Amino acid sequence: MDISWSIFRTALLKWHNPEDRPMPWKGIRDPYRIWLSEVILQQTRVEQGLPYYNRFVAAYPTVQDLAAAPDDEVMKLWEGLGYYSRARNLLKAARMVSQELGGEFPRDYNGLRALPGVGDYTAAAIGSFAFDLPTPVLDGNVFRILARYTNSFQPIDDGAGKRYFKELVEAALGSASARKFNQAIMDFGATVCTPKRAYCTQCPLAFSCGARSAGTVYELPVKRKTLKRTTRHFHYLVLRDQGDRCLIRRREEKDIWRGLYEFPLIETTGPILQASDLAVHPDWPGSIPARELQFLRSSPPYKQQLTHQTIIAVFHEFSAADLPTALKAHQLINYKMLAKMAFPRVITRFLSENRLHLDLF
Ligand code: SF4
Fold first, then answer.
1. From ligand 1's centre to the CA of 196, what distance in Å?
2. pLDDT category, 326, cuts 50, 70, 90?
3. How far is the CA of 168 from the centre of ligand 1 (A)?
């Protein structure tokens, strides 16, 4: 199929009304806010990310404000958004801009790309929206639109596919303004050529769309790798002493949820264990004699779906006369302090659904 990118580009830009889908970051030129919105919206739906964007802008109106914020405060504000490496990189990049670059974002693609957490897509978006660089964005939306429009079965998730689609999007952009083109193709992917539903009858590109004429719209785009998921069982020990204190620790290892807090954890791969089985589990914290605890209850399983993992968490509550102040890597804190700490969503849900009997917040 011969592709006329000038037809594609002209129809797309003619269709696009920049006033549609108003968002607080659309049309602005401030690289800090554009960067913030792009980082927050990676792998996140707009409806979910929008309140986070507003909260971040209110708390930290400038990159210097964000750079000066304590890590725990930023993690708390990020709580619930997932993919916590983004929050850690957000802070690193803000500090780099503030302390090493004189408070100014780089104005070229390579400089933007060198910021922690900024990949090809984000650098292209900031570059085009803030500085009018001729950098087309290539994300899941754009892969899908191009694969469908050209009826291409080239897999999008390997090196060859990425190079192939990069050439296509550069041809599609041509000499148009990347700022206008990127906004148009993003809005088009979000409203017309969407993953689960393609509104082909209302599509301005329908007359020249390859997948529409071939009847392959919902077979595209193609991925080579199918996602393999593992299931992990987390048994959390919610231990509370007479002084209303509990044990928690910050996750520091290279794993999910780094930088977030959690209760003492026993992880298993097999079926969910009863509280009585845990007391004899090799990972039971040796400095807490199980016989001195009073078992209160176990929660039903809480599930959290991550990209590659399914987490099943069960919370086992115990009361204790006394708890050790120095259980490896844990700290003993008052229950009221839990409200100030950032937890994975599965723990926040448990705390929020049980706040009455836990006497929280
Ligand atoms: S015709 Fe359908 S599949 Fe083709 S670009 Fe438009 S919405 Fe997407």
1. 12
2. low
3. 16
**Beta carbons of 112 and 124 less than 8 angstroms apart:** no
Ligand 1 proximity of 172 Cβ (cutoff 6 Å): no
Cβ of 220 below 6 Å from ligand 1: no
State residue 19 phi and psi, 5-degree precision: -80, -20
Q: pTM for the full model?
A: 0.77
**Cβ-contact 345, 304 below 8 angstroms:** yes
Q: At 296, phi and psi to the nearest 5?
A: -105, -60
Segment 83-100, tens digit of pLDDT: 888 999 999 999 999 999
Q: Whose CA is nearest to atom 2 of ligand 1?
A: 200
What's at 78, amino acid-wise?
Answer: W
Residue nearest to atom 4 of ligand 1 (CA): 209
User: What CA–CA distance (Å, rounded) separates 117 from 344?
Assistant: 20
The answer, yes or no, to whether any atom of ligand 1 lies below 6 A from the CB of 185, is no
**Which domains occur in the chain, in start order?**
5-219 (1.10.340.30), 230-358 (3.90.79.10)
Q: Is the CB of 211 under 6 A from ligand 1?
A: yes
Query: Backbone phi, then psi, for 237, in 5-degree steps?
Result: -100, 105
- Return the C-alpha torsion angle 185, 187, 191, 194, nearest 10: 40
Ligand 1 centre distance from Cα of residue 90 (Å):
35
- 252 in catalytic set: no
Q: What phi-psi label fits residue 329: left (phi over 0), alpha (psi between -120 and 50 degrees) or beta?
A: left
| C-alpha span between 161 and 163 (Å, rounded) | 5
Catalytic residue among 38, 79, 262, 317: 38
144 lines ligand 1 (CB under 6 A): no
pLDDT band at 243 (very low <50, low <70, confident <90, very high): confident
Spatial contact of 150 and 168, defined as CB atoms under 8 Å apart: yes
